[in-house]
Amino acid sequence: MPGHHKVFLGMAAGVGKTFRMLQEGRAELEAGRDVVIGYLEPHGRAETEAQADGLLPLPRRRVTYKDVPLEEMDLPGLIARRPELALIDELAHTNPPGLEHDKRYEDVADVLAAGIDVYSTVNVQHLESLNDQVAELTGVRVRETFPDSVLSQADEVVLVDLTPPALIERLRAGKVYPAARVPAALNGFFRVENLEALREVALRQVAEDVEAKRLKGDVTVGREDRLIDRAAPVAVAERLLALVTPQPSSQRIIRRAWRSAQRLGAALDVLIVLTGEPSAEEREQIEAFRRLGSLLGAEVLVEEGDDVPEAAARVARERGSTYVLIGTPAPRRGLRRLREPLADRLLRALPGIDVRIIADRSKRRS
Amino acid sequence: MTHAAVLIAGLLAGVVLALLVVRHMRGDEPPHVDRILFPYVGTQLSISALDAALRIAKAERATLVPAYLVPVPMAMSLEAPIPRDCSKAFELQEAIEQRAATTAIPVDGRIGAGRTIRHALRGLLETERYDRIVVAAGTAHTDGLSSTDVAWLLEHAPGEVVVLRPADEAALAAA
């Protein structure tokens, strides 16, 4: 049976991930479990080193890379030692060539596969899917990344949180880096705006992870039928679905939906339902929407179906949407008067989900 | 006298109509302009340049395709989301749409990303369908294409290119 993996996630160095991991490791040790330190990177922090006191460190493996002597985690030694719990720092670390794996998260996978529980630490900017977002927010691109699946497959993700002013205070007090590195850190990565952005990303990441595990849990305990039948699953994270047609006028809906998503910190899906073969102009517009979606960080979905509300409701349920946004319907004339309006049908098909009609503001009377 | 005037007017109308028919049959009519590409940059768009582009679109009964060009830093993927730039682009696009709405000119906005303005422009020319390009050159008070980018456009863009040098006056601005 594979081991239990608990990840301590933080927004940046110095928030106390390693400290917290060691604290919990000590608690396990005191509870009578066999705990070892697989790899610890104390960064010369006195508080961290003190917390490691009493925990057994596994001897490190010495390797030489480009004539530089390095100390790395001894993976074969750890597996041979077979503790009940291993504490392994820096999940995104890149190993020097010649070891079993390129990345430490791969070492951790082996340790887990050997039936050993693992506590590990990582910063949110190392997450592969967030790499671009973090680079844009902070102007700093992190080279050591790890796949999102490592986090989503972890049994527990614990957010180690600290407010940006408190972290900067710790940095100034020399608790994060040696004094010589503090000015450069304060002028570079450790700016309040950077830390606030990273903290938001980390908080959202953990919220999404909790939500994903909650939904997955519903399925794995045999309640899949309930999940599908229950039209409006309760969601922690907001998710918007903009229903558009492949026409230039739909850009207004995408813009408004995207702004709402930005304000809510929500994901945005843009849905186009094709009821027939699209014309050349429509195909062109779909491609333009796809390019726009990529720049906005929104996903553009194209579905085929005769019944637009039915297709939209299905996609909204599948995506866990909490809002559906539609454009102002055209005036109903002729036989169309007999049909139930789109908004009404969506409200009926998606109980508990907000349906918002986007008005054309250029038509607003002053 | 009145009868003579009516007769002359009728004859003139007949001649004009006949000329139009002949011209149409010969295929002398200028080709129909469907879409006018209007690439722009920065956060300050000259109102006079925009109005000129809108006048051309109205005269041609064409759709104006305003395209905001964004340079993406090398450290970022070209496919990466760029929310701050999109936000600026949307503000300008909405201002353009509002101005176009007063003269009922259809607008089909775009955002073009590239490593440089020219790279974004090249990508736009490759992906968009257009019949004419209208660009505003930069001035001291408004953002616009640089002289080297305009020169590149004149050399490389297929079709007609109209370069506007706006007067230094009011501009549409993104916050």
Descriptive notes:
The complex is a heterodimer of chains A (366) and B (175). Chain A has 366 residues and is α/β, with parallel strands linked by helices. In chain A, 43% of the residues lie in helices and 19% in strands. Chain A has 13 helices and 13 strands. In chain A, the strands form three sheets. In chain A, strands 3-2-6-7-1-8 form a six-stranded parallel β-sheet, with helices on both faces. Chain A is elongated, with a radius of gyration of 25 Å. The N and C termini of chain A lie far apart (68 Å). Chain B has 175 residues and is an alpha/beta fold. Chain B contains five helices and seven strands. In chain B, the strands form two sheets. In chain B, strands 4-3-1-5-6 form a five-stranded parallel β-sheet, with helices on both faces. In chain B, strands 2-7 form a two-stranded antiparallel ribbon. In chain B, strand 3, helix 3 and strand 4 form a beta-alpha-beta unit. The longest helix of chain B has 25 residues. The mean pLDDT of chain B is 84. Chains A and B meet through helix 5, helix 10 and helix 11 of A and helix 3 and strand 4 of B.
Outline of the structure:
The complex is a heterodimer of chains A (366) and B (175). Chain A has 366 residues and is an alpha/beta fold.
Shape call of chain A = elongated
Structural class of chain A: alpha/beta
Helical residues, percent of chain A: 40-55%
Low-confidence stretches of chain B: none
Number of H/I helices of chain A: 13
- Biggest β-sheet of chain B, characterized? 5 strands, parallel
> Which quaternary structure do these chains form?
heterodimer
Total strand segments of chain B: 7
User: What separation lies between the terminal Cα atoms of chain B?
Assistant: 66 Å
Topology (elements, then pairings):
The complex is a heterodimer of chains A (366) and B (175).
Chain A: E1 5-10, H1 17-30, E2 35-39, H2 46-52, E3 56-57, E4 61-65, E5 68-72, H3 75-81, E6 85-88, H4 104-113, E7 117-123, H5 131-138, H6 148-153, E8 156-160, H7 164-172, H8 182-187, H9 192-229, E9 239-244, H10 251-264, E10 267-274, H11 280-296, E11 299-304, H12 308-319, E12 323-327, H13 342-349, E13 354-358
Parallel strand pairs in A: 1-7, 1-8, 2-3, 2-6, 6-7, 9-10, 9-12, 10-11, 12-13
Antiparallel strand pairs in A: 4-5
Helix pairs in contact in A: 1-2, 12-13
Chain B: H1 2-26, E1 35-40, E2 44-46, H2 47-60, E3 63-71, H3 83-101, E4 110-114, H4 117-127, E5 132-136, H5 147-156, E6 160-164, E7 171-173
Parallel strand pairs in B: 1-3, 1-5, 3-4, 5-6
Antiparallel strand pairs in B: 2-7
